[in-house]
Amino acid sequence: MPLDVIVVMDPIDHIKIAKDTTFAMLLEAQRRGHRLHYVRPGGLSLHGGSAAAVTAPLEVRDDPADWFSLGQFGSTRFGPGQVVLMRKDPPFDGEYLYDTHVLGIAQSAGALVVNDPQGLRDFNEKLAALLFPQCCPPTLVSRSAAELKAFVHEHGQAVLKPLDGMGGRSIFRSGTGDPNLNVILETLTDGGRHLALAQRFIPDISAGDKRILLVDGEPVDYCLARIPQGDEFRGNLAAGGRGEGRPLSERDRWIAAQVGPEMKRRGMRFVGLDVIGDYLTEVNVTSPTCVRELDAQFGLNIAGQLFDAIEAGIA
What we know:
The chain is α+β, with helices and mostly antiparallel strands.
């Protein structure tokens, strides 16, 4: 049965389709005969107790010169027979939070929201990994620059980052004797007003920051190792990292088995785990990527796996 697939995303005219996972989802939904609808950025709203959006019919094409067409915008009320792909990139700010509340009401009206709005609120991508401490490196989250500095000195080298970034932005590597450590901590904590995260530096980052994708709690058989280039310690593709596909290791599968069942239980149908060496460092739930790269390298159809799960869940 054809479904109405409604996508909440960043402006579609600015995406790079060769690397855009949301675009892969849209191509697959269209291939299956589902109707696509694009939500105008900022277009979610509430009318009394009903969730609505300003949407336009959408067609997509795998053509880097001409990848989409939009029909006329109008108002859409949420209800049964709809799948909402919530794929807006971080930061998770106040407006994003309010949108999850609107989508929670859409869900109550019968729409299937991927990922679950309550889960999006509950799982901060930096903190969610710490729900599985058996998988993580030594980590401290604090507003205290003194505590964070003591952690760095204890471990010699640490990675320091805010709780609301993406793509490697505002991530620092520092260590004992670094004359910039104090100012890094002052900046990240805003003088003690914001929480910051410190993790023991994992030297295995030189072999790549692995992105493991979970579809309905089950891992895709291959991960994308994002390998730092030149003098850069960050592997994020947005920071210039090189993506290299690899089969999952036994440890990767063990980590996925620790995390996957809870993600499935909470309605998080598409999740990206960041793993460096043997350690889980982040659980990405807002807009995990790397589908296009893995599909291209291994002949996969990861969006197809996702829509198999979606269609089974809505039947």
